[in-house]
Amino acid sequence: MVIQVSVCGPRDCTSEDESNAREVGRLLAERGAVVICGGYTGVMAAVAAGARSAGGTVVGILSRADRQDANPDLSIVIPTGVGEARNGIIVNSADAVIVIGGSWGTLSELALAMRRGLTPVVQLGGWRILDRDGRPLPGVEHASTPEEALARTGLWPGR
Fold this sequence. Notes:
By secondary structure, the protein is an alpha/beta fold. It is built from five helices and seven strands; from the N terminus they run βαβαββαβαββα. The chain has helices at about 15-30, 45-55, 85-90, 105-115, 145-155, and strands at about 5-10, 35, 60, 75-80, 95-100, 120-125, 140-145. It has a seven-stranded parallel sheet, sandwiched between helices. α1 (about 15-30) runs parallel beside α2 (about 45-55). The longest helix is centred in the N-terminal third of the chain and has 16 residues, at about 15-30. The protein is globular and about 45 Å long. The protein starts with a strand and ends in a 6-residue tail after the last helix.
């Protein structure tokens, strides 16, 4: 079965987040992974563009019930009409979740992935989730580069 990696991040992202997302998409495609994302702008558009530039497959899980405003770099568009509930679909479809940048929607995806507890969750930039004593919460792997983010998923050992 092909590896599926969900990449989550905000519509309104920084140029660094956009660059990281594009590189993550490219690296995932080079490894033969299917990229799953929210299918719109920002980090979602950048990861899709990166994956497509390397010949990869990108699935966009849209919040709306139509394809309007879907990113043109998507290989497959799935309009759900379920709004933010689509975040659960994105997370549940993944063998690993890579979170790039931060926003409230991105935080919900990270929380859903952590609560599910079945897949590695890697954060590249963005918000830090701390416990009440100011320590990073266990379970979220932190990466400083796209290459490290893929390595921390554990999906490609020895690479």
